[in-house]
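Minutes, project check-in
Item: structure for the 564-residue chain
Input as provided by the requester:
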Amino acid sequence: MSSVASVGRALSLHTAKTGEWATIKSMSPFVDHKIKYAAPNLGERSITIGTSSSSIDSSKHEVAAHMFAYMSRERVRISFENGDKARLLVDESSPHDHTIATIKQLPYPFSKREFVNRLISARDANGDYLMASVPAKDQVDYGMSSNTVHGMVRGIARIFVRIGTDTTDKSRCRVTFYGYVDFGGYIPAALMSRAVPRMLAVVEDLRDVFQVDEEFDKEELARLASIIRGEGEEYTEEERHQLSVTQLDLGEGVLSALDFETLESLDHLVNMSWMMFTRSDMVLRASTVVDAPLEDCLAWEIAKLSRAAQKRHFKEHGKEQALIGVDAHSGTYHDIRGLDVPRSRLREWRMRYVWKYKDVRRDEVLLCYTTIDDADDTTSYVKVQFSGFVVFKKQEAVGAVSQTLVSVAARMDIGGHLPRSYLRKVGVHELCGVGLMRQQFDRSLEVDGEVRAENMKMIAEHAKKYSTEKDHADAYSMVEALIVIDGERHFEEFEGMKAKSLKMESPLTTGEIAFQKNDSHAWGRATTTVRTSPKEVRAPHQSYRQRALPLSTCLLHPLTDVPS
């Protein structure tokens, strides 16, 4: 069969089987999967057609070259990670016509399937790349153990791929994949439902190879932050009313009168608390300091459909999500989520947000959320009642690192009659976005470095000011002097006790433990060498504000006195 005829036959795949396209779940929120499949009777051959499409973050030329390079290291690695037993380039008839072979493993008791195809590339009148894969009759010597190839059934696969420029972004391309597979025998529908997504995963793998999600989100957040900084103060009466009502319901005056309980935060730098009214109604609070300007924090919060946000929502819920009617100061957000409760109905969040600078100083931004009631909505989802109030307040910078205090208060009624323990989990999950924001902009190493530098400067100034032994003694209060004397005594006591060596994680550190007979306590001592000055070693321990300290240390009460 000629190359032109092969491409033409592959082109007819989308009409090769009667029936309607049915959507099936993909492993990515950016890739759409559909299938045409009629369950065969016992003894009939299992045949299916699937299609998949997605936008790829690269030019159509690069994507086409990647797809045609069947034996590239990247594609071979992905193939074997997916469980394929063999992958060969059998023949190169021309630069645009290759014969390829693959052995795919099916679960026991089904035999392995062999696919031998001609891979042909071409371009149409619009400049789009066309890739066709059609069955070939070649007999392939895989050069491996007979146990691997024994009992194989040859399947029939026809694949057509169109790679064209994305209409919304000329720097990207749109890939549409059609696949026809005859597995060569009867395969149960349950197994087919697992096999077809693997066939369509070609597009998911392709998107992962070229994705630049972090760079895309970074540019979009910078664009949003720039809009926020330059935005005027013209608000509609409805927007002003929404801000004032939410602030009145969830303001500090109202919250201070409630009896909150501490929630166990997933991030030790985020404080969380809650109060439950009924078995579905609760009030939530959270606060943290974010290492970014307040405009960047606000941009991250309202970027509901950033690629990172879409991937998180898809992984956790896998349901519908949309951002509707966005304008300068407000937007409407809608998403569907399931509960981890058997036989529970899906929950629907339909909210409108509005943000505003508090005053002309622009050092504080207010953001509020309110639920939208749609009388025409006839879906069976349980409507979640939600109101939220977020304050972004500029703090004094630590060196060159901007600081923003983010405080969240929300009241949420998810409907139903749910256990208290489960509502606590829901509350923590709802507030975890505060921790995600902090981690997105986290610059803890730089902040800790600035704190260390401050402490080193303080120690150096102290040593310079109290240079003589008498001045040094006069610098300490009686209580401080007794603490130092008591500490030195402990070192002397250790010398007089029988010590036992400990195995330490680092070979450069020695550890010992000692105790005296009839004592109810023991002493431990560790020694190591650090390649820096004594004051630089001392500086990190001068302040328990250091973020790099262990979590157990951070559970201590915060300092009430300024370090001296």
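Outcome recorded: Residues 13-17, 552-557 have pLDDT under 50 and may be disordered.
No further action items on this chain.
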